[in-house]
Amino acid sequence: MSKQTFAPHPTVPLSNAVRAGDFVFTSGQVPFGPDGKLVEGGIDVQTKTVLDNLAAALGLAGATLNDVVKTTIWLTDAADFAEFNSVYAGYFETPPPARSCVVSALMVPARVEIEVVAYRPE
To answer: Are 15 and 7 in contact, with CB atoms under 8 Å apart?
Structure first.
């Protein structure tokens, strides 16, 4: 099995994506814009940004959101769950991937963080 890393972070010890054989694993993505700054806005804006960032990270490894088999989500406020779900559902085909979702504090002042596992044969 081969292993490739994509887009190592310049100051934090992580890579945006790692391909291990037919699987692609992403680091947790938070709503940072192209300028590297946290995107302002509610859970809808932040969720869209995170999912777009995940699509870009997967693309580096030759995968897409359609290849995602598992997601893990962290929300900072349980009250955001319904609105988060509305945005999230628009990014995945039916049936959607398996998922876990928890409420907890994040390492940055964001409302959502998501990581995914994708299956895309080499």
So the answer is: yes
Q: How is the chain split into domains, by residue range?
A: 3-119
Rounded Cα gap, residues 113 and 30, in angstroms: 5
Which residues lie closer than 8 Å to 34 by C-beta, 6 or more apart? none
For the domain made up of 3-119, the CATH class stated in words is alpha beta
- Contacts of residue 70, defined as CB under 8 A and 6 or more positions apart, other chains included, come to 97, 98, 99, 116, 117
Measure the CA–CA gap between 110 and 113, rounded to whole angstroms: 8
Contact 65, 15 (CB under 8 A): no
Percent of the chain predicted with pLDDT > 70: 98
- Kindly report the pTM of this predicted structure: 0.93
pLDDT of residue 29: 94
